[in-house]
Q: What sequence folds into this?
């Protein structure tokens, strides 16, 4: 039998980022939390925690955390259905990975009504759409938005639609950098704005034009700041069409090559045994997200 008090200690240390904060969260002494982790490791016969700063779960520890979080969601459903069991006292908290561009555009419109109708709190962690699966695999989250189609073992994936990205720059940047016209080679040599080291949208766009690059780039890990830097003339970049519709209409931003864009698929990956609330949230996304994303794409045609 699994002693869930030991698993709760592991969860608290990983979620809170240390033994001291985990002890406060559990109402225990730091020594007691440490003893529970050691007892868990003795029972499973292997380390479950890396004593790093902050501490992180080992591969085995992640499997145990994944199990604990799924059990917690299923137990909550059972308490809500069985009159003799104590009903949940607090709203459910679902931990998700959302890419910054979705959070800055269509996400709130898709989930806002749902969160008002249900006792639900969302713990949204922002990461690039190409790295969310790692967090789901680790058991750190119950769902993620991702550009990859293939689901993990024990999870499902659902295509919500495609997010259209446009290559844009300010009029002053275009006038300064492309005095002899806009071509793929000249775009590759012009400074770009990139969200982070894992952001390869610019490379994919240039590859579609038969070029490599960009050779020079700024790094800006903020969707709002990203657009502001481009509007300030610091570089060109790939931006969701929905995010810059008004700026394009006002002429503050312009497409580098009108008609050239990237459509990035967005898949919702979620645990199969994630509980009724996660299933209901998935149904809400399946109903609303395609229309929101399709409306964005049709408006830019």
A:
């Amino acid at each position: 039998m699994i002693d869930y008090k030991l698993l709760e200690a592991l969860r608290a240390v990983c979620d809170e980022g240390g033994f001291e904060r985990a002890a406060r969260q559990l109402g225990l002494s730091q020594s007691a939390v440490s003893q529970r982790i050691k007892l868990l490791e003795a029972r499973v016969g292997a380390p479950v925690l890396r004593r790093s700063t902050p501490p992180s779960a080992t591969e085995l520890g992640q499997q145990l955390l994944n199990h604990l979080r799924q059990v917690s969601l299923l137990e909550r459903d059972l308490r809500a259905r069985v009159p003799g069991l104590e009903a949940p006292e607090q709203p459910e908290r679902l931990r998700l990975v959302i890419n910054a561009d979705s959070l800055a555009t269509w996400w709130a419109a898709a989930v806002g009504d749902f969160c008002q109708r249900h006792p639900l709190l969302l713990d949204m962690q922002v990461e690039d759409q190409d790295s969310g699966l790692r967090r789901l695999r680790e058991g750190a989250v119950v769902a993620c938005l991702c550009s990859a189609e293939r689901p993990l073992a024990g999870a499902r994936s659902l295509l919500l639609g495609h997010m259209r990205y446009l290559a844009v720059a300010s009029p002053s940047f275009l006038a300064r950098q492309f005095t002899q016209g806009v071509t793929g080679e000249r775009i590759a040599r012009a400074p770009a704005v990139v969200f982070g080291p894992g952001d390869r949208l610019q490379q994919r766009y240039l590859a579609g034009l038969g070029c490599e690059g960009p050779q020079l780039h700024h790094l800006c890990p903020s969707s709002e700041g990203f657009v502001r830097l481009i509007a300030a003339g610091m570089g060109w970049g790939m931006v969701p069409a929905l995010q810059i519709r008004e700026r394009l209409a006002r002429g503050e931003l312009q497409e580098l090559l009108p008609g050239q864009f990237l459509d990035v698929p967005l898949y919702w990956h979620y645990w199969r045994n994630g509980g009724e609330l996660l299933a209901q949230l998935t149904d809400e996304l399946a109903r609303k997200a395609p229309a929101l994303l399709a409306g964005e794409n049709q408006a830019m045609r």
User: Anything to note?
Assistant: Residues 92-301 form a domain with the D-Maltodextrin-Binding Protein; domain 2 fold (CATH 3.40.190.290). The radius of gyration is 23 Å. The first helix runs from residue 4 to 16. The chain has a mean pLDDT of 89.
